[in-house]
Design a protein that fits this description.
Blueprint lengths: L2 E5 L10 H9 L2 E4 L6 H4 L7 E4 L5 H14 L3 E5 L10 H10 L3 E4 L4 H9 L12 E5 L13 H4 L5 E5 L5 H12 L4 E6 L7 E6 L3 H8 L5 E5 L25 H12 L1
Helix pairs in contact: 3-4
């Protein structure tokens, strides 16, 4: 018997991995985060399976269901949104399974920021504009941020930011990042990206609070901040340049150029 922590992806039912879906289709027990996992995904569970929404359950109750499945010798599909490694609250579950000596595996999923970037048809890294993506959040009711990971520190990087779980902290985001990014820095607020009711707000640090308020968005949104958004003036990557040589292309050109430079 094994508990499978499965990343269901950012929202669209067909963005789950093949491996994740096949496991759901055969596991007799399916525990899923109902507020963020589409019902179409868990409807793939086999006939007669125990399918349970864990949104109203606490950690002890969830682990008890896993323990009961272990006693029955039944595999468990534990379905989380996005990718389990990012704000998945799986570490505490795995720790308790370790104590109970119940085996488990993790199946990755498409993270929310990747799903949103795909719908925006944008690249989060551009040559000489940004080569770093920081996935972070701000302090909230669930937990505070480590003192060395605050926006006051991360903002100094001027990297592309993907800020989760912070739609109620926009004043703090604006005031903290403006000195580093500028008040006109592009911001995109992605609400339920890849879901049927998705919504994207293209704005700036200066205007984002008013724009989000006008759309009445109060939850389930990701905040992108960075110079890459809407950027058209950037240098092409060398990767596909006709003059760029690597092990799979133009090896001869590289040798000729090196010989010419040596002369």
């Amino acid at each position: 018997m094994t508990v499978y922590f499965i990343g269901a992806g950012p929202g669209a039912a067909d963005l789950i991995t093949v491996r994740g879906l096949k496991l759901i289709e055969r596991c007799p027990t399916c525990l899923y985060a109902g507020s963020l996992v589409p019902t179409e995904i868990v409807e793939a569970a086999p006939e007669g399976a125990l399918v349970k929404d864990t949104a109203p359950m606490n950690l002890r109750e969830i682990i008890e269901d896993m323990r009961s499945a272990h006693e029955r010798g039944e595999d468990v599909a534990r379905v989380h949104s996005g990718d389990p490694s990012i704000y998945g609250a799986v570490a505490e579950q795995m720790r308790r399974l370790d104590d109970l000596q119940i085996p488990y595996e993790v199946v990755p999923g498409v993270p929310a920021f990747a799903g949103a970037a795909a719908k925006l048809q944008t690249e989060l890294t551009l040559p000489e504009i940004a080569q770093t993506i920081i996935i972070t959040r701000t302090s909230g009711k669930a937990s505070s941020m480590p003192e060395h990971e605050t926006l006051e520190i991360l903002g100094q990087s001027r990297a592309t930011l993907a800020i989760h779980l912070s739609i109620r902290n926009l004043k703090y985001v604006e005031e903290t990042l403006t000195p580093y990014y500028g008040e006109d820095c592009p911001v995109i607020v992605a609400y339920r990206a890849t879901w049927p009711d998705e919504k994207f707000i293209t704005t700036t640090l200066k205007d984002m609070r008013a724009d989000v308020r006008a759309e009445k968005i109060t939850r389930t949104a990701l905040i992108f901040v960075g110079k890459v958004f809407g950027q058209k003036q950037f240098r092409d990557s060398e990767l596909y340049s006709a003059d760029f040589a690597h092990v799979l292309r133009n090896k001869g050109k590289k040798k000729k150029r090196q010989a010419a430079e040596a002369e």
